[in-house]
Amino acid sequence: MSNFELDLTPLYRHSVGFDQLASLLRNSLRSESPASNYPPYNIEAVEENHYQITLAVAGFSQEELDLQVENGVLTVRGKKADDGKAKQYLYQGIAGRSFERKFNLADHVEVKGADLTHGLLTISLVKEIPEAMKPKKIEIGQSDNVIEHKSRDAA
Fold first, then answer.
1. Would you state the pLDDT for residue 154?
2. pLDDT tens per residue across span 48-98
3. In a domain? residue 68
4. Residue 81: inside a domain, yes or no?
5. Of 20, 83, 101, 141, which has the maximum CB count within 10 A?
């Protein structure tokens, strides 16, 4: 990736409260590096307000994986346990290195669970918008109280 600097000044000129979004964009662009593509992952919209992150973590057991959510950031860590046996590989194509992968979660997105099956770690997410923030329809009533105006000339 080239050294690209993102200028978000126009965003600040016409909006309020998007400074966190701007920081998120800047940090996302800076953190992408060739080494950050391990382990590979998918992000999928399963249905409305339900998402799924799937990471390919072949060779890792449940005990070697750690998931945490803090301040809207989901962190997935994998650390291979050392079995104490020295191995002599003729070829090692299966990555067993430790990793840390972070995902920024939008407001009101919560982790509902995780499952490890056939080397794939699947993390279920749901966006639950609080009732107070959901759109409400406001009924417009009609008042029966009609105020009559008398002109000064009529009096």
1. 55
2. 889 999 999 988 999 999 999 999 899 999 998 877 788 888 988 877 788
3. yes
4. yes
5. 101
Segment 12-26, tens digit of pLDDT? 665 555 566 666 666
Instruction: Give the three-class secondary structure for 16.
Output: coil
Q: How large is the greatest C-alpha to C-alpha distance in the chain, in angstroms?
A: 110
Nearest to 23 by CA among 73, 82, 90: 73
The DSSP code sequence of 69-137 is EETTEEEEEE-PPP-S-----S---S----EEEEEEPPTTEEEEEEEEETTEEEEEEEE---GGGS--P
* CA angle at 121 for the pair 118 and 125, rounded to the nearest 5°: 140
Domain range for 92 is 38-130
Q: Which residue has the higher pLDDT, 151 or 92?
A: 92
In angstroms, the CA 38 to CA 99 distance is 7
Minimal CA–CA distance to 126: which of 113, 140, 144, 139? 113
146 part of a folded domain:
no
Number of Cβ atoms within 10 Å of the Cβ of 141? 6
